[in-house]
């Protein structure tokens, strides 16, 4: 049996989707959570100064989306054809981009710059992305692609917690298809079981 | 026969790797280049306000890395196993991240902020990434993974032009393994033929 060891911070963030995928796949994994105070020491030991990393049978892999995609392949969450996979990847990458923009605001140190970034997010970026993402889910029968569950759905349903936390606001409130998708993913038995037992964090 | 229609700006940028992949695959494609002055009109017609997009048999696909990965699959540039593909994806995603950081500097409007971003890139980010990328290529026999050509190599050999252009400097000069990889990819017959006939641009 394969051994999986996830290393990330003690937040949902970008570790969340990997934890969802491993849970969905029904495999055991070690869920290592680095304290921020230990990060300066841990950072140079990662392949490119970043977490999450996933150790599979003793070898360290990095980069969130590639790790998610690898797990998606193992657990049949990539659609039926290569073109299905392309659309599923595109949806996951888009959610990843949106989270990145929110995190660039959240971690901005300069207060004037931070206010400017927030303004752009609230008035432009979030409405633009969320409307299009909501429409995509509506058009695809409640999922991001093809009327069936894919890793893009799990990716979104994990990362949305991080986006809401960073924005200190339920930015998905006015997007009923996205809200329903979150509820549906969270109700999957193995995801529900994971959520019940995993640490509660703000982001 | 499939028809491919790429839409991007008239620069290498993120369109470059897709043009490299289509050329490497030996398929014909339409290479549509939007002028910056036409972008405000074209932007809302794209799926998420961004290019490149790739139309395949009349359907529009989006997101650079997913498009590259799809083409890589068609042209056998994804290694042998799913774990090979994970490492190849991680390398391509890392180069994509680095380009993004360089572009955030390049497009910064505030001059003080721009100077700060450049300082961080030159003293910290670029040396950190380029050393690790160079070591990866050295360790893998001249490629990013597994001693054989993958789409990560084509991705890098295209995008490096954009990074150099934005930095107005050959930032790869002191990294012999990266330089050699660029030369090797550019010497592939179909890539060389593409480079000979494609428009020359600064980025």
UniProtKB/TrEMBL annotation, chains A, B:
Top EC class of this enzyme? transferase
What are the residue boundaries of the GST N-terminal domain, all occurrences included?
2-79
- Key words of the record: Transferase
SUPFAM superfamilies from the entry?
GST C-terminal domain-like (SSF47616), Thioredoxin-like (SSF52833)
The biological process GO terms on file are: glutathione metabolic process
Q: Which InterPro entries match?
A: Glutathione-S-Trfase_C-like, Glutathione-S-Trfase_C_sf, Glutathione_S-Trfase, Glutathione_S-Trfase_N, GST_C, GST_superfamily, Thioredoxin-like_sf
Q: Which residues form the GST C-terminal domain?
A: 81-203
**Reaction catalysed?**
RX + glutathione = an S-substituted glutathione + a halide anion + H(+)
UniProt-recorded Gene Ontology molecular function terms:
glutathione peroxidase activity; glutathione transferase activity
User: Which Enzyme Commission numbers does its entry carry?
Assistant: 2.5.1.18
- Give the record's family classification: Belongs to the GST superfamily. Sigma family.
Q: What is this protein called?
A: glutathione transferase
């Amino acid at each position: 049996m394969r051994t999986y060891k996830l290393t990330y911070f003690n937040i949902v963030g970008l570790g969340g989707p990997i934890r969802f995928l491993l849970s969905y796949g029904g495999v055991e994994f070690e869920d290592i959570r680095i304290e921020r105070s230990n990060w300066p020491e841990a950072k140079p030991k990662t392949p490119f100064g970043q977490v999450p990393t996933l150790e599979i049978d003793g070898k360290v892999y990095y980069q969130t989306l590639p790790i998610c995609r690898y797990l998606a392949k193992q657990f049949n969450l990539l659609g039926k054809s290569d073109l299905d996979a392309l659309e599923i990847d595109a949806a996951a990458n888009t959610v990843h981009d949106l989270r990145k923009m929110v995190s660039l605001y959240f971690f901005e140190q300069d207060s004037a710059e931070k206010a400017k970034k927030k303004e752009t997010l609230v008035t432009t970026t979030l409405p633009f992305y969320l409307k299009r993402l909501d429409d995509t889910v509506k058009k695809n029968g409640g999922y991001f692609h093809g009327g069936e569950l894919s890793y893009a759905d799990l990716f979104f349903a994990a990362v949305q917690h991080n986006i809401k936390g960073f924005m200190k606001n339920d930015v998905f409130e006015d997007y009923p298809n996205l809200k329903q998708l979150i509820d549906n993913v969270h109700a999957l038995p193995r995801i529900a079981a994971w959520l019940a037992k995993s640490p509660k964090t703000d982001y």
